[in-house]
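Hi, can you check this record?
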Amino acid sequence: MLESSFRNLVAPGRFPDQLLAQLRRFTTSLIEQGYAGETVRLKLQLLTNFGQWLRRNDLAVTNLDERVVEAFFKRKHRVHRHGVTRRQTNAIPAE
């Protein structure tokens, strides 16, 4: 299931190849740490949304800093006030 979620969320063309490799390592790390499948999927979805937002705002990964990340979360919060919760973005490992 997670492999298909990974393929769907990070489909070719959405991220540069070097970023895809890091996302795959991130996903593997979350799974190895015992995060639930749904938590991994939500984190990948959040990163996918972030990548799309970067592209829409003509921002490169090399331009990332705290201000850029804060702007993304502020925008996401304004657009989806009742969407992704704090628990989902800071998900807790499965027990």
